[in-house]
Structure formats: structure tokens, C-alpha cells
Amino acid sequence: MNPGDLDRTDPAGAVAAAAKRVSNWGRWGADDVRGTMNFLDADRRRAAAALVRTGESYSLAQRFDMDGPQKGWRRRTNPVHTMLDTGVDAVHGDQGFPHGIGGADDVIAMPLQCSTQWDGLGHIFDHGVAWNGRPADKVVTSLGDLVTGIETVADVIAGRGVLLDVGRAIGTDGELPDGFAITTEHLARTIERQGASAAVGRGDLLLVRTGQLTRARRDGWGDYAGGPAPGLSFTTADWLHGTEIAAIATDTWGFEVRPNEFDHAFQPLHQVAIPHIGLFLGEMWDLDALATACAADGVYEFFLTAGPLPVTGAVGAPVNPIAVR
């Protein structure tokens, strides 16, 4: 499917048709809670470990601090870090500990999806229905995600990572402009240019670099959080399903192209990918240093570990992904 085939006036129809084509409901049984993460098994994880060549490692997380991307939309704020005990307290003898010992403690308050994170399977619904066809009100309540909480995949997100640096392959000076819709053709062209190590297949943890974070780091956050952005076209839904990847992450706030490709729509690819494909989406990942290293030696595959913070019942969680080459 090409972007030109989309009827901009009918997002509901496009979502319904795509959901029918790519649904994984029941594929791993009625009780499944891991969706596409089922593609990432022990054999693939063991094979991925053999990809480590140099031992060089790269954190793919943005900093978690007040100088972050969030603007307060839907109460998403940047982290607030507060010290509970400090060196000042220790020097002044205010801590009450014996024999001269002192210490420091701190606390952080933040939305779980304010920076580098995974969207869990309880994050998005389609017409009140969650992953695997469950009624959303039976899955996520005020107590949290009672079925597919992010803790259910805390121990399995480690395997073969693949970087598709679409910003370098297709863009100008390593960056795609805001509003650029990445199609299946763009992904195929990037794979062809990067070579055999960029082949994408079952169980892979796919990373797509657009270069938008590079631009935000240079020019300021602006509307990075929720504004126009390059991203995946809605028409990639069939490709995302057919490749049988375990997860996909981008360097943008919302994974898919913004503005979205329909009139009066909001994140329609999320509406298909999460509740129907069962696909885990990562957002706001920092792929720049890794991309530079991959471009230098032409190797775009690596071992990647990216377990989320296992907050019980959370529908998304912060992560510090580590790529080892």
C-alpha cells in the first residue's frame, strides 16, 4: 500500500481494514500477554550475543532531567529530581548517623513515558478493545494494567538489534524533515544501501533513526514533543506485521509521521500496531552515537538489551537501552 492510496477523509476505515489484515489475535493463544515479543526466543537471543565484535557499548537513552522534551501535554512533564539527603547535611551533622558516616539519597517524580521508553500493550486501544481482543476496561483500570503490564516483558527484551538510519540514507545531511512519511520503499532502500547486516527479520529489535533528535539537540526542543515530525507512514503496517519483528523504536516523540496522514486523526498507526499486531513501540531513543559508529564500519547489527523498568501494571516504562557492537 502506498501513501497515495490512502483516503485522507476516512481514518476509521483505513484503521479497520489494516487491523483486519494484520491482526495477531489468538496467534499465541487466548491468554497471551507478550505479543510480538514471542518472536524473540532463546535461540535468537543466543545468536544475537555472537554479534558482539568490538565490545563497544552505547546507551540509547536520553537524559532524564528537567531539560527534557516534554511540554506538559496530558500532564506529561519532565522528571523532577529532588535530594532527600545531601553532602551539606552530612557536613553539618544533621543526619544523626553514628561514627561519622554520612550519605545522600534522592527521589524522582515523572510520567513513565516522559523520555526514552517503551509503549506497552496496554497503552493503546481500538474502539475500547486491547491487545488480543480483550475489553479495555478489563485490562487497564485505576489499579493499572492487570493483564499486559510492562513487567511481563521485563526479562525478554534482549536480542539482535538492527539500525535503519533512514536519516542518512534518504535525508539531507543525515536528517529527515518534519512531516516526512517513511514508507516501505524508504525502508527497503535504506536496507539496500546499508548492506547485508541491515536485513530485518523475525525477532529483531528494529531501530529507525530519522535525525529529528539531532535537530532538536542542535536547535532546541521546540515542538519535538507532540509536534510535526518525520516517522513511519501508516502504510507500513503490513510491513511491520510481515517482517515479524519483536519491537521497533525511533528517535522521535511519537514513532509515526506527524501530522498524521489523515484529516482529523491521532496516531492511527499506534491504533493498529499495538492492540492488533501486538507490537512494542519505543520512542525518544537517542540513536546518534550508535548511528555514527555503524556508518563508520558499515555494520548495522548488534546485541541490544532494553528491558523496561518493571513497574507493576504500567502501560509504558522508561528504559536505558544498551547496544553492544
From TrEMBL:
Pfam families: Cyclase (PF04199). GO terms for biological process: L-tryptophan catabolic process to kynurenine. One of its GO terms (molecular function) is arylformamidase activity. InterPro entries: KFase/CYL, KFase_sf. This is Cyclase. It comes from Pseudofrankia asymbiotica.
